[in-house]
Amino acid sequence: MIFQDKRYIVLFLAPTMLLLAIFLLYPLGQSVYYSFTDWYNFSNTKHFNGLANYRQLIEDPVIGIAFKNTFILVAGAILLQAGGGLVLALLTDSIKRGFKFFRTVFFFPIVISGTAIGLMFSLIYNYDYGLLNALMRAFGWGEQVWLTEKSAIYLVLIPILWQYVGFYFVIFLTGMSKIPEEIYESATLDGITGYRRSIYITIPLLRDVIASCLTLATAGALKVFDVVYIVTKGGPLNSSELLSTYMYTKAFNGQNAGYASTIVIAMMVLGIVITVALNRLVKKEAAGY
Amino acid sequence: MKKTGSKATTVLLTLVAIMVFMAGCGGGSNAGEKNKGENKGKDKEITLRVATSFAGSDPWVPAWTNALQQFKDKHPNVKIVDESTPVNNEALRTKVKADAATGNLADVMFYFNGSETAILTESGDIVSWEDELAKDADWAKQFNSGIIEKVKYNGKLYALPYIGFYEGLFWNKTLFDKYQLEAPASYDAFMKAVDTFAANGIIPFATSLTTPYLQEALVLSQVGPEGQQKAYDASWAPALNIFRELSEKKAFPKDALTLDDEKAQALFSGGKAAMMFNGSWTAAGNSKIEGIEILPFPLVPGGKGENMIVSGFGSGWYMKNNKDQDKYAMSLEFIKFITSPDVAGKFAEIGGTYAVQATATNATAKLLTDGNAMVAAAKDFVMPIDSYVTRESYTEFTKGLAYLSGGKKTAEEVLAEAKKLNDKATK
Fold first, then answer.
1. Does the beta-carbon distance from B90 to A256 stay under 8 Å?
2. Theoretical Cys-Cys bridge with A241: which of A23, A234, B193, B290, CB 3.0 to 4.6 Å?
3. How confident is the model at residue B3 (pLDDT cuts 50, 70, 90)?
4. pTM, rounded to two decimals
């Protein structure tokens, strides 16, 4: 009621709108424009080249690999990050002792930077002096190259999933703390305990939280760059390339900012499509209490 | 009336917000102008921004750091903002190009020449050195005039040549002696060494398949200097097929596809690999290891590049054409200081060949002297392939070789793809 006068709304929103316009909308508009140009070497000269970059995008075999890997990452994020976080939260919520300990332990990887985690895992996978091959040697088994064309994307998935599972775990725990105790008490009187309590009461009542987590996990997966770039740089043979790492390679190693902008637009469209689809899927029947 | 008033207020408030924001942004500039006025005179505080490649794991970092300190001691009124950036992952190229595009070039730069000079000259902010060299004959005569002629761009000298580089075949004599192998001076001796080391569990050749050095050597050896200038010509294919043959002979580390250059160098310097083809910047580290020697890459069968090396002055000192005369003069003084024989001598102790007179010291290691002797004895020199092709095509070419070594692409396909990208960007 205080803000019935629209002037105040405009006043308070103006700084944010201004910053958003300068640092988000303007660069986005520019990226759309650049995606229709051939712009090399970050020079001041660029020429409009119509849909040439978009044709290249369709014909580029690496884009196919990057799309496939991005979907693997999104699926991993949904199932193992958000899903794993939910399972851990359900397990932790039902224990009587050590709740705070588990909450801290599961959340801890979030505070480590992606770069540090990437470096740590690149050392683990290193052929010559990595942890995994040290273990192989200790057990008398032969050393092996871990980051291969087939395995690389799954091996870089491990640190990414490990890092963020705690984030969703904490969100789910917070969601669970909001569910009234009376509902559980009534359920107990009806004889519903253990895992059935989680399936029939907790999860349905967390539907909104789950929807938010799925959106966050999807958006997060589309943004992944640091860990993959540090561990594999998108290789070997582009096998762990994501749209983000390929965009970086094209922009900064290849110095072709026009085509890199086209990849950015593809990333953005993909992000919007997946997020909208997920939201429609999950938010159908929100339960209340 | 009320509606109109509300709209006007909204517009007014938005304008006020924009003005507050702009005022905030402009504050620094006003303050700077004020200081500029206050500090006029001999002791005027000058801030010099310098951007070089002497950063990260670059071997010349200690010499650079010492030189900066000496200059600061000599000129206490000068504040140096060291924006040096490693060349790895094209970080320096990206920084300088972004600076050039936004009109924010550093005052002094040690940066690539060749095709990169074109981008800097587009900005119109770069000094062409002819006038300054003419004004100071003593300084000018310190430079090798032949090299100066070679690094000119469109007939003008924008990048003052300083440290030159060469690429060579480093080999571990201790390991070669252990397996009674001849020095890899000929192709047969090289291939015999590859087979012998591979059979004895020693990595024959330390390289990452993400780096360009070995293919540079193979292409030059195969097609010679003239052929090397024909970007991604089909005549390069036999050289690339040798690359593939070496991969099939297990000449490279098992994890060569994901290994980076620093780790490949560590395999060689740690005695786990017998040979490495790399640049003079790795010579300083290897000179401390007993038994490391250097040779040009051997002539491949039917090749045209015997005793020819990839070498040159790929970088040089650029200076921004500052309107502020004090800043211009101090930038010039800085470059004269860094190219002085004493400072160059300190850089030379670490390695490389020099386009300026460098005070000789006794500290020059044998491997570095041998490297310079190799350059002196070479029949011809060429600049690396990436000095005249587009970055995108070169990145794809290097990546393509990884596909080639795994049998996923043919040499002809790799060359055709790189050529297509190069032609597209240069059309």
1. no
2. A234
3. very low
4. 0.82
